[in-house]
């Protein structure tokens, strides 16, 4: 992209002010991409993940003993609901660990990129590519 900008500047297609602005935007895009690569390439440490799993299971195991005196016969139901929530949060943490994948719960990157592409092309007066439609209520 930088080579194209230098060529456009030399050919007089853009001014030096526009060149400077676009160069700053390109540098910022590079920084954003580097940040996303760091997020994608830095998994949760294994020991932290194991500790979280064990803490959730120990909590769910000990919880009925601490609530039995207060809840009586309702203890299994309440503990089941609380355990369901904590185990769900544990599973959710594993999903959130990889936001740039292609699973249903990951970010819809193709749709986001297509939206940016359409906005850029419409500002240039170019023909627009089709919008990415949801498949089974999911955008990928």
Automatic annotation (TrEMBL):
> What membrane topology does the annotation report for this chain?
Multi-pass membrane protein
- Transmembrane segment boundaries: 48-67
Pfam families linked to this entry: Bestrophin_2
An MF annotation (GO) of this entry: chloride channel activity
**Cellular component GO terms held in the UniProt record:** plasma membrane
Q: Which domain of life is it from?
A: Bacteria
Q: Which UniProt keywords apply?
A: Cell membrane, Ion transport, Membrane, Transmembrane, Transmembrane helix, Transport
Q: Where in the cell is it found?
A: Cell membrane
Q: Which family does it belong to?
A: Belongs to the anion channel-forming bestrophin (TC 1.A.46) family.
PANTHER family xrefs: UPF0187 PROTEIN YNEE, VOLTAGE-DEPENDENT ANION CHANNEL-FORMING PROTEIN YNEE
Spell out the protein name for this chain: Bestrophin
């Amino acid at each position: 992209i930088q080579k194209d900008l230098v060529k456009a500047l030399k050919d007089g297609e853009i001014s030096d002010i526009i060149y400077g602005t676009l160069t700053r935007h390109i540098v910022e895009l590079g920084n954003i991409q580097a940040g996303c690569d760091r997020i994608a390439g830095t998994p949760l440490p294994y020991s932290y993940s194991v500790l979280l799993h064990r803490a959730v299971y120990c909590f769910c195991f000990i919880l009925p003993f601490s609530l039995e005196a207060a809840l009586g016969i309702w203890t299994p139901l309440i503990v089941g609901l609380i355990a369901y929530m904590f185990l769900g949060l544990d599973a959710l943490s594993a999903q959130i660990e990889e936001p740039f994948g292609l699973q249903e719960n990951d970010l819809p990157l193709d749709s986001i990129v297509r939206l940016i592409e359409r906005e850029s092309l419409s500002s240039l007066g170019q023909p627009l590519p089709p919008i990415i439609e949801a498949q089974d209520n999911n955008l990928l």
